[in-house]
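Quick one, T. Sequence first:
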Amino acid sequence: MGAGHSHTPQGHPEPTPRALAARRKANWLLAAVLVPLTLLTIAAMVLLWPSGSKEGITLASPYAAAPGVSFDTGKIQRVVVGSCMDPAAPPGAPAESTQGAAPGQGSQCTFAYTEPDKGGNPVKVVINPDVAKSHGVKIGDNIRYLNLSKAQGAAAQGTPAYVFVDFVRTLPIILLAVLYAVVVIAVARWRGLRALIGLAGAYAVLVSFILPGLVEGKPPLLLALVGSTVIMIGVLYFAHGFTARTSTALLGTMFGLGITAALAAWATDAANLAGVGNHDAATLANVSDHISISGIILCGLIISGLGVLNDVTITQSSAVWELWELAPGTSARQLFSSAMRIGRDHIASTVYTIAFAYAGAALPILIIVMLYERPLGDALTSAELSEEVIRTLVGSIGLVLAIPVTTLIAVLVVKATGHKGTRTTADDDAGRPAAVMRGSALAHGSLPGDGTPGDGTQGSAPGGGLPDRSSGPAPESRRGRRAAQPG
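C-alpha coordinates:
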Protein backbone atom coordinates (compact mmCIF):
# COMPACT_ATOMS: atom_id res chain seq x y z
CA MET A 1 0.00 0.00 0.00
CA GLY A 2 1.13 3.53 -0.64
CA ALA A 3 1.85 6.05 2.09
CA GLY A 4 -1.14 7.67 3.70
CA HIS A 5 -3.45 4.71 3.16
CA SER A 6 -6.08 4.55 5.89
CA HIS A 7 -7.71 1.31 6.85
CA THR A 8 -11.40 1.00 6.20
CA PRO A 9 -13.81 -1.54 7.68
CA GLN A 10 -13.01 -3.75 4.69
CA GLY A 11 -9.23 -3.35 5.02
CA HIS A 12 -6.66 -5.21 7.06
CA PRO A 13 -6.27 -3.93 10.64
CA GLU A 14 -3.01 -2.66 11.99
CA PRO A 15 -0.95 -5.48 13.57
CA THR A 16 -1.01 -5.68 17.35
CA PRO A 17 2.20 -5.53 19.41
CA ARG A 18 1.97 -9.30 19.89
CA ALA A 19 1.76 -9.81 16.12
CA LEU A 20 4.73 -7.52 15.54
CA ALA A 21 6.74 -9.46 18.12
CA ALA A 22 5.82 -12.70 16.34
CA ARG A 23 6.99 -11.30 13.01
CA ARG A 24 10.30 -10.24 14.54
CA LYS A 25 10.79 -13.74 15.90
CA ALA A 26 10.02 -15.20 12.46
CA ASN A 27 12.61 -12.91 10.90
CA TRP A 28 15.25 -14.05 13.39
CA LEU A 29 14.46 -17.71 12.71
CA LEU A 30 14.76 -17.21 8.96
CA ALA A 31 17.92 -15.12 9.31
CA ALA A 32 19.59 -17.99 11.18
CA VAL A 33 19.20 -20.09 8.02
CA LEU A 34 19.52 -17.53 5.25
CA VAL A 35 22.50 -15.51 6.48
CA PRO A 36 24.94 -18.48 6.35
CA LEU A 37 23.56 -19.49 2.93
CA THR A 38 23.97 -15.95 1.64
CA LEU A 39 27.53 -15.67 2.93
CA LEU A 40 28.36 -19.03 1.34
CA THR A 41 26.88 -17.85 -1.96
CA ILE A 42 28.89 -14.62 -1.90
CA ALA A 43 32.08 -16.53 -1.11
CA ALA A 44 31.43 -18.91 -4.02
CA MET A 45 30.76 -15.97 -6.31
CA VAL A 46 34.08 -14.38 -5.36
CA LEU A 47 35.93 -17.64 -6.03
CA LEU A 48 34.18 -18.18 -9.37
CA TRP A 49 34.40 -14.58 -10.54
CA PRO A 50 35.77 -14.55 -14.12
CA SER A 51 39.05 -12.82 -14.88
CA GLY A 52 37.73 -11.20 -18.05
CA SER A 53 40.54 -12.62 -20.14
CA LYS A 54 39.68 -13.63 -23.72
CA GLU A 55 42.96 -15.35 -24.41
CA GLY A 56 42.68 -18.17 -26.93
CA ILE A 57 39.29 -17.02 -28.23
CA THR A 58 39.13 -16.66 -31.99
CA LEU A 59 35.83 -15.26 -33.18
CA ALA A 60 35.58 -12.99 -36.20
CA SER A 61 32.74 -10.56 -35.69
CA PRO A 62 30.46 -10.28 -38.74
CA TYR A 63 30.00 -6.62 -37.84
CA ALA A 64 33.72 -5.82 -38.04
CA ALA A 65 34.21 -3.98 -41.31
CA ALA A 66 37.24 -4.54 -43.53
CA PRO A 67 39.35 -1.59 -44.74
CA GLY A 68 37.26 0.60 -47.02
CA VAL A 69 34.00 -1.00 -45.85
CA SER A 70 31.51 0.59 -43.46
CA PHE A 71 28.09 -0.06 -41.94
CA ASP A 72 25.71 2.77 -42.76
CA THR A 73 22.05 3.46 -42.00
CA GLY A 74 19.35 5.16 -44.00
CA LYS A 75 15.65 5.43 -44.84
CA ILE A 76 14.15 3.66 -47.87
CA GLN A 77 12.72 6.04 -50.49
CA ARG A 78 11.71 3.58 -53.19
CA VAL A 79 11.60 -0.20 -53.76
CA VAL A 80 12.10 -1.83 -57.17
CA VAL A 81 12.47 -5.34 -58.53
CA GLY A 82 14.95 -5.95 -61.33
CA SER A 83 17.57 -8.24 -62.74
CA CYS A 84 20.32 -9.15 -60.33
CA MET A 85 22.84 -8.74 -63.17
CA ASP A 86 21.92 -5.13 -63.90
CA PRO A 87 24.42 -2.49 -62.85
CA ALA A 88 23.32 0.13 -60.36
CA ALA A 89 20.56 2.09 -62.02
CA PRO A 90 20.13 5.80 -61.43
CA PRO A 91 17.67 6.77 -58.70
CA GLY A 92 15.08 7.98 -61.21
CA ALA A 93 14.95 4.73 -63.18
CA PRO A 94 11.49 3.16 -63.51
CA ALA A 95 10.58 0.21 -61.29
CA GLU A 96 10.81 -3.22 -62.82
CA SER A 97 8.67 -6.27 -62.08
CA THR A 98 9.29 -9.98 -62.12
CA GLN A 99 6.22 -10.48 -64.30
CA GLY A 100 7.57 -8.12 -66.96
CA ALA A 101 11.06 -9.59 -67.11
CA ALA A 102 12.11 -10.82 -70.50
CA PRO A 103 13.43 -14.37 -70.87
CA GLY A 104 17.15 -14.67 -70.31
CA GLN A 105 17.43 -11.68 -67.99
CA GLY A 106 18.45 -13.93 -65.09
CA SER A 107 17.29 -13.94 -61.51
CA GLN A 108 15.24 -11.12 -60.11
CA CYS A 109 16.36 -9.16 -57.06
CA THR A 110 14.75 -6.55 -54.84
CA PHE A 111 16.49 -3.20 -54.55
CA ALA A 112 15.77 -0.39 -52.12
CA TYR A 113 16.82 3.15 -52.99
CA THR A 114 17.91 4.43 -49.60
CA GLU A 115 18.75 7.92 -48.43
CA PRO A 116 21.81 7.71 -46.13
CA ASP A 117 21.39 9.19 -42.66
CA LYS A 118 24.80 10.84 -43.01
CA GLY A 119 23.58 12.70 -46.10
CA GLY A 120 24.13 12.39 -49.84
CA ASN A 121 22.27 10.95 -52.79
CA PRO A 122 20.11 7.82 -52.45
CA VAL A 123 22.01 4.55 -52.92
CA LYS A 124 20.76 1.29 -54.45
CA VAL A 125 20.80 -1.38 -51.73
CA VAL A 126 20.26 -5.01 -52.70
CA ILE A 127 17.87 -6.79 -50.34
CA ASN A 128 18.58 -10.36 -49.23
CA PRO A 129 16.26 -12.85 -50.96
CA ASP A 130 15.05 -14.38 -47.69
CA VAL A 131 14.13 -10.94 -46.30
CA ALA A 132 12.42 -9.93 -49.53
CA LYS A 133 10.36 -13.13 -49.54
CA SER A 134 9.44 -13.47 -45.86
CA HIS A 135 8.93 -9.88 -44.74
CA GLY A 136 9.86 -7.51 -47.54
CA VAL A 137 10.83 -3.87 -47.27
CA LYS A 138 8.73 -0.78 -47.81
CA ILE A 139 9.09 2.93 -48.18
CA GLY A 140 9.96 4.59 -44.88
CA ASP A 141 11.79 1.60 -43.36
CA ASN A 142 15.07 2.38 -41.62
CA ILE A 143 17.73 -0.14 -42.56
CA ARG A 144 21.39 -0.85 -41.90
CA TYR A 145 23.44 -1.75 -44.97
CA LEU A 146 27.02 -2.63 -45.89
CA ASN A 147 28.77 0.04 -47.89
CA LEU A 148 31.25 -1.60 -50.29
CA SER A 149 31.54 1.31 -52.69
CA LYS A 150 35.02 2.18 -51.47
CA ALA A 151 36.29 -1.38 -51.04
CA GLN A 152 39.27 -2.20 -53.19
CA GLY A 153 38.38 -4.52 -56.10
CA ALA A 154 34.71 -4.87 -55.14
CA ALA A 155 33.40 -3.29 -58.33
CA ALA A 156 35.72 -5.36 -60.57
CA GLN A 157 34.38 -8.58 -59.03
CA GLY A 158 30.77 -7.66 -59.72
CA THR A 159 29.93 -7.33 -56.03
CA PRO A 160 26.95 -5.06 -55.25
CA ALA A 161 28.07 -1.74 -53.84
CA TYR A 162 25.43 -1.69 -51.08
CA VAL A 163 24.09 -4.80 -49.34
CA PHE A 164 21.23 -4.99 -46.85
CA VAL A 165 22.29 -6.11 -43.33
CA ASP A 166 19.35 -5.54 -40.99
CA PHE A 167 16.49 -3.28 -40.01
CA VAL A 168 17.04 -0.46 -37.54
CA ARG A 169 14.70 -1.25 -34.63
CA THR A 170 15.84 1.32 -32.08
CA LEU A 171 12.68 3.44 -32.01
CA PRO A 172 10.04 0.67 -31.63
CA ILE A 173 12.08 -1.10 -28.96
CA ILE A 174 12.53 2.13 -26.98
CA LEU A 175 8.80 2.86 -27.25
CA LEU A 176 7.87 -0.62 -26.03
CA ALA A 177 10.38 -0.41 -23.17
CA VAL A 178 9.00 2.95 -22.05
CA LEU A 179 5.42 1.67 -22.30
CA TYR A 180 6.35 -1.43 -20.30
CA ALA A 181 7.96 0.64 -17.56
CA VAL A 182 5.02 3.07 -17.42
CA VAL A 183 2.47 0.25 -17.17
CA VAL A 184 4.42 -1.60 -14.47
CA ILE A 185 4.96 1.52 -12.37
CA ALA A 186 1.39 2.77 -12.85
CA VAL A 187 -0.10 -0.52 -11.66
CA ALA A 188 2.45 -1.67 -9.06
CA ARG A 189 3.72 1.80 -8.08
CA TRP A 190 6.91 1.83 -6.00
CA ARG A 191 7.07 -1.95 -5.90
CA GLY A 192 6.93 -2.03 -9.68
CA LEU A 193 9.76 0.49 -9.90
CA ARG A 194 11.85 -1.59 -7.50
CA ALA A 195 11.10 -4.70 -9.57
CA LEU A 196 12.36 -2.98 -12.72
CA ILE A 197 15.56 -1.90 -10.97
CA GLY A 198 15.98 -5.44 -9.66
CA LEU A 199 15.56 -6.79 -13.19
CA ALA A 200 18.36 -4.54 -14.38
CA GLY A 201 20.54 -5.86 -11.55
CA ALA A 202 19.72 -9.43 -12.51
CA TYR A 203 20.89 -8.83 -16.07
CA ALA A 204 24.04 -7.22 -14.72
CA VAL A 205 24.84 -10.45 -12.83
CA LEU A 206 24.12 -12.48 -15.96
CA VAL A 207 26.35 -10.34 -18.19
CA SER A 208 29.22 -9.74 -15.76
CA PHE A 209 29.37 -13.11 -13.97
CA ILE A 210 27.58 -16.02 -15.65
CA LEU A 211 28.35 -15.39 -19.32
CA PRO A 212 32.09 -14.60 -18.89
CA GLY A 213 32.38 -17.58 -16.54
CA LEU A 214 30.98 -19.91 -19.21
CA VAL A 215 33.41 -18.48 -21.77
CA GLU A 216 36.34 -19.14 -19.41
CA GLY A 217 35.25 -22.72 -18.74
CA LYS A 218 34.09 -22.31 -15.12
CA PRO A 219 31.90 -25.15 -13.75
CA PRO A 220 28.50 -24.46 -15.36
CA LEU A 221 26.46 -26.06 -12.58
CA LEU A 222 28.08 -23.91 -9.89
CA LEU A 223 27.89 -20.82 -12.08
CA ALA A 224 24.18 -21.28 -12.63
CA LEU A 225 23.41 -22.06 -8.99
CA VAL A 226 25.48 -19.25 -7.53
CA GLY A 227 24.42 -16.68 -10.12
CA SER A 228 20.73 -17.62 -9.85
CA THR A 229 20.83 -17.50 -6.05
CA VAL A 230 22.44 -14.06 -6.07
CA ILE A 231 19.81 -12.86 -8.55
CA MET A 232 16.95 -14.19 -6.45
CA ILE A 233 18.32 -12.72 -3.22
CA GLY A 234 18.61 -9.33 -4.87
CA VAL A 235 15.31 -9.17 -6.74
CA LEU A 236 13.18 -10.68 -3.95
CA TYR A 237 14.39 -8.44 -1.15
CA PHE A 238 14.63 -5.36 -3.35
CA ALA A 239 11.10 -5.73 -4.75
CA HIS A 240 9.30 -7.12 -1.69
CA GLY A 241 11.35 -5.83 1.24
CA PHE A 242 13.08 -7.57 4.14
CA THR A 243 10.10 -9.44 5.56
CA ALA A 244 9.43 -12.94 6.85
CA ARG A 245 7.25 -13.58 3.80
CA THR A 246 10.08 -12.69 1.43
CA SER A 247 12.59 -14.79 3.38
CA THR A 248 10.21 -17.76 3.31
CA ALA A 249 9.81 -17.37 -0.45
CA LEU A 250 13.59 -17.17 -0.84
CA LEU A 251 14.06 -20.47 1.01
CA GLY A 252 11.47 -22.11 -1.22
CA THR A 253 13.15 -20.64 -4.29
CA MET A 254 16.53 -21.99 -3.22
CA PHE A 255 15.01 -25.44 -2.82
CA GLY A 256 13.42 -25.21 -6.27
CA LEU A 257 16.75 -24.10 -7.75
CA GLY A 258 18.49 -27.07 -6.15
CA ILE A 259 15.96 -29.54 -7.54
CA THR A 260 16.08 -27.92 -10.98
CA ALA A 261 19.90 -27.95 -11.00
CA ALA A 262 20.07 -31.62 -10.01
CA LEU A 263 17.56 -32.64 -12.67
CA ALA A 264 19.21 -30.46 -15.30
CA ALA A 265 22.64 -31.97 -14.61
CA TRP A 266 21.26 -35.48 -14.89
CA ALA A 267 19.12 -34.78 -17.97
CA THR A 268 21.92 -33.02 -19.87
CA ASP A 269 24.15 -36.06 -19.46
CA ALA A 270 21.50 -38.78 -19.80
CA ALA A 271 19.93 -37.25 -22.92
CA ASN A 272 23.31 -36.31 -24.43
CA LEU A 273 22.36 -32.69 -25.05
CA ALA A 274 25.27 -31.37 -27.09
CA GLY A 275 23.66 -28.66 -29.23
CA VAL A 276 24.07 -30.70 -32.41
CA GLY A 277 22.45 -29.03 -35.38
CA ASN A 278 22.44 -25.56 -33.81
CA HIS A 279 24.42 -23.05 -35.86
CA ASP A 280 25.22 -20.85 -32.84
CA ALA A 281 26.37 -23.85 -30.83
CA ALA A 282 28.63 -24.95 -33.67
CA THR A 283 30.11 -21.45 -33.82
CA LEU A 284 30.83 -21.41 -30.08
CA ALA A 285 32.34 -24.90 -30.19
CA ASN A 286 34.97 -23.65 -32.63
CA VAL A 287 35.69 -20.44 -30.75
CA SER A 288 37.59 -21.86 -27.77
CA ASP A 289 38.51 -25.17 -26.19
CA HIS A 290 37.24 -23.88 -22.83
CA ILE A 291 33.63 -23.44 -23.93
CA SER A 292 31.39 -26.43 -23.28
CA ILE A 293 28.14 -26.51 -25.26
CA SER A 294 26.64 -29.05 -22.85
CA GLY A 295 27.60 -26.77 -19.97
CA ILE A 296 25.87 -23.82 -21.64
CA ILE A 297 22.73 -25.92 -22.15
CA LEU A 298 22.85 -27.02 -18.49
CA CYS A 299 23.18 -23.42 -17.34
CA GLY A 300 20.29 -22.41 -19.58
CA LEU A 301 18.04 -25.12 -18.16
CA ILE A 302 18.51 -23.69 -14.67
CA ILE A 303 18.20 -20.00 -15.51
CA SER A 304 15.18 -20.34 -17.79
CA GLY A 305 12.78 -21.14 -14.94
CA LEU A 306 13.85 -18.41 -12.51
CA GLY A 307 11.01 -16.00 -13.22
CA VAL A 308 8.16 -18.48 -12.82
CA LEU A 309 9.82 -20.06 -9.78
CA ASN A 310 10.04 -16.66 -8.11
CA ASP A 311 6.39 -16.04 -8.94
CA VAL A 312 5.01 -19.19 -7.32
CA THR A 313 7.16 -19.07 -4.19
CA ILE A 314 6.33 -15.47 -3.30
CA THR A 315 2.65 -16.17 -3.94
CA GLN A 316 2.62 -19.25 -1.71
CA SER A 317 4.49 -17.50 1.06
CA SER A 318 2.08 -14.57 1.00
CA ALA A 319 -0.90 -16.94 0.96
CA VAL A 320 0.26 -18.72 4.13
CA TRP A 321 0.92 -15.49 6.00
CA GLU A 322 -2.42 -13.99 4.95
CA LEU A 323 -4.34 -17.10 6.01
CA TRP A 324 -2.51 -17.21 9.35
CA GLU A 325 -3.07 -13.54 10.10
CA LEU A 326 -6.79 -13.95 9.40
CA ALA A 327 -7.00 -16.96 11.74
CA PRO A 328 -3.93 -17.35 14.00
CA GLY A 329 -5.57 -20.24 15.84
CA THR A 330 -5.57 -22.44 12.73
CA SER A 331 -3.71 -25.71 13.15
CA ALA A 332 -0.58 -26.34 11.11
CA ARG A 333 -2.25 -29.14 9.15
CA GLN A 334 -5.28 -27.00 8.29
CA LEU A 335 -3.10 -24.03 7.36
CA PHE A 336 -0.99 -26.17 5.05
CA SER A 337 -4.06 -27.70 3.42
CA SER A 338 -5.69 -24.31 2.83
CA ALA A 339 -2.53 -22.85 1.30
CA MET A 340 -1.99 -25.90 -0.91
CA ARG A 341 -5.45 -25.48 -2.39
CA ILE A 342 -4.23 -22.11 -3.64
CA GLY A 343 -0.95 -23.68 -4.74
CA ARG A 344 -2.64 -26.37 -6.83
CA ASP A 345 -4.49 -23.72 -8.82
CA HIS A 346 -1.20 -21.94 -9.34
CA ILE A 347 0.52 -25.13 -10.47
CA ALA A 348 -2.07 -25.70 -13.20
CA SER A 349 -1.66 -22.21 -14.65
CA THR A 350 2.13 -21.99 -14.44
CA VAL A 351 2.67 -25.38 -16.09
CA TYR A 352 0.76 -24.05 -19.08
CA THR A 353 2.80 -20.86 -18.95
CA ILE A 354 6.12 -22.70 -19.21
CA ALA A 355 4.97 -25.06 -21.94
CA PHE A 356 3.42 -22.38 -24.14
CA ALA A 357 6.32 -19.97 -23.64
CA TYR A 358 8.80 -22.54 -24.93
CA ALA A 359 6.44 -23.65 -27.72
CA GLY A 360 6.08 -20.06 -28.89
CA ALA A 361 9.83 -19.54 -28.95
CA ALA A 362 10.35 -22.77 -30.91
CA LEU A 363 7.60 -22.33 -33.52
CA PRO A 364 9.95 -22.35 -36.56
CA ILE A 365 11.54 -25.59 -35.35
CA LEU A 366 8.11 -27.10 -34.66
CA ILE A 367 6.96 -26.28 -38.18
CA ILE A 368 10.07 -27.83 -39.73
CA VAL A 369 9.69 -30.99 -37.65
CA MET A 370 6.01 -31.19 -38.60
CA LEU A 371 6.86 -30.95 -42.29
CA TYR A 372 9.35 -33.81 -41.91
CA GLU A 373 6.34 -36.03 -41.09
CA ARG A 374 8.32 -38.03 -38.56
CA PRO A 375 6.64 -40.13 -35.86
CA LEU A 376 5.77 -38.10 -32.77
CA GLY A 377 8.19 -40.00 -30.53
CA ASP A 378 11.07 -39.50 -32.94
CA ALA A 379 10.25 -35.82 -33.32
CA LEU A 380 10.13 -35.12 -29.56
CA THR A 381 13.44 -36.89 -28.97
CA SER A 382 15.20 -35.39 -31.99
CA ALA A 383 18.11 -32.99 -31.71
CA GLU A 384 15.87 -30.14 -32.81
CA LEU A 385 13.23 -30.55 -30.07
CA SER A 386 14.78 -32.55 -27.25
CA GLU A 387 16.37 -29.52 -25.60
CA GLU A 388 13.06 -27.63 -25.48
CA VAL A 389 11.21 -30.69 -24.19
CA ILE A 390 13.74 -31.30 -21.42
CA ARG A 391 13.79 -27.60 -20.52
CA THR A 392 10.01 -27.66 -20.11
CA LEU A 393 10.02 -30.85 -18.02
CA VAL A 394 12.93 -29.89 -15.77
CA GLY A 395 11.60 -26.41 -15.11
CA SER A 396 8.09 -27.70 -14.40
CA ILE A 397 9.27 -30.36 -11.94
CA GLY A 398 11.34 -27.86 -9.97
CA LEU A 399 8.44 -25.43 -10.00
CA VAL A 400 5.85 -27.94 -8.81
CA LEU A 401 8.04 -29.28 -5.98
CA ALA A 402 8.88 -25.76 -4.81
CA ILE A 403 5.23 -25.02 -4.03
CA PRO A 404 4.65 -27.59 -1.23
CA VAL A 405 8.13 -26.96 0.17
CA THR A 406 7.59 -23.19 0.29
CA THR A 407 4.18 -23.76 1.87
CA LEU A 408 5.63 -26.09 4.49
CA ILE A 409 8.45 -23.67 5.35
CA ALA A 410 5.97 -20.82 5.72
CA VAL A 411 3.71 -22.89 7.97
CA LEU A 412 6.63 -23.96 10.16
CA VAL A 413 7.83 -20.38 10.46
CA VAL A 414 4.47 -18.89 11.41
CA LYS A 415 3.88 -21.66 13.94
CA ALA A 416 7.38 -21.31 15.37
CA THR A 417 6.74 -17.69 16.23
CA GLY A 418 4.76 -18.81 19.28
CA HIS A 419 1.79 -16.56 18.47
CA LYS A 420 -1.09 -18.83 19.45
CA GLY A 421 -3.95 -16.36 19.17
CA THR A 422 -4.49 -15.92 22.93
CA ARG A 423 -5.41 -12.25 22.90
CA THR A 424 -8.25 -11.28 25.22
CA THR A 425 -11.32 -9.29 24.29
CA ALA A 426 -10.12 -6.34 26.34
CA ASP A 427 -6.73 -6.33 24.61
CA ASP A 428 -8.35 -6.50 21.22
CA ASP A 429 -10.97 -3.84 21.95
CA ALA A 430 -8.23 -1.51 23.16
CA GLY A 431 -6.11 -2.03 20.05
CA ARG A 432 -8.73 -2.16 17.27
CA PRO A 433 -11.95 -0.28 16.54
CA ALA A 434 -15.08 -2.40 16.69
CA ALA A 435 -16.04 -1.43 13.15
CA VAL A 436 -12.73 -2.75 11.87
CA MET A 437 -13.17 -6.01 13.73
CA ARG A 438 -16.71 -6.53 12.47
CA GLY A 439 -15.82 -5.56 8.89
CA SER A 440 -12.77 -7.83 8.78
CA ALA A 441 -14.75 -10.77 10.13
CA LEU A 442 -17.80 -10.22 7.93
CA ALA A 443 -15.54 -9.92 4.85
CA HIS A 444 -14.49 -13.51 5.47
CA GLY A 445 -17.92 -14.86 6.30
CA SER A 446 -17.53 -15.24 10.07
CA LEU A 447 -17.37 -13.39 13.35
CA PRO A 448 -14.96 -15.18 15.68
CA GLY A 449 -15.69 -15.34 19.35
CA ASP A 450 -14.25 -12.04 20.53
CA GLY A 451 -14.28 -10.17 17.23
CA THR A 452 -10.67 -11.03 16.32
CA PRO A 453 -9.42 -13.84 14.13
CA GLY A 454 -8.10 -16.85 15.92
CA ASP A 455 -8.99 -15.98 19.50
CA GLY A 456 -9.32 -19.65 20.34
CA THR A 457 -12.85 -19.26 21.76
CA GLN A 458 -16.12 -20.77 20.73
CA GLY A 459 -16.36 -18.44 17.73
CA SER A 460 -13.70 -20.37 15.79
CA ALA A 461 -13.95 -23.88 14.50
CA PRO A 462 -11.45 -26.40 15.89
CA GLY A 463 -9.48 -26.25 12.63
CA GLY A 464 -9.28 -22.48 12.73
CA GLY A 465 -11.77 -22.03 9.88
CA LEU A 466 -15.36 -20.88 9.97
CA PRO A 467 -17.19 -20.96 13.32
CA ASP A 468 -19.56 -23.78 14.13
CA ARG A 469 -23.01 -22.26 13.92
CA SER A 470 -24.81 -25.48 14.89
CA SER A 471 -24.41 -24.83 18.61
CA GLY A 472 -25.83 -21.30 18.38
CA PRO A 473 -24.09 -18.07 19.27
CA ALA A 474 -22.07 -18.03 22.44
CA PRO A 475 -23.42 -15.53 24.99
CA GLU A 476 -19.96 -14.11 25.73
CA SER A 477 -19.23 -13.37 22.06
CA ARG A 478 -20.23 -10.20 20.27
CA ARG A 479 -22.63 -12.19 18.11
CA GLY A 480 -24.12 -13.74 21.23
CA ARG A 481 -24.64 -10.36 22.88
CA ARG A 482 -26.39 -9.06 19.77
CA ALA A 483 -28.58 -12.16 19.58
CA ALA A 484 -29.50 -11.85 23.24
CA GLN A 485 -30.69 -8.25 22.85
CA PRO A 486 -34.48 -7.88 22.46
CA GLY A 487 -35.83 -7.03 18.94
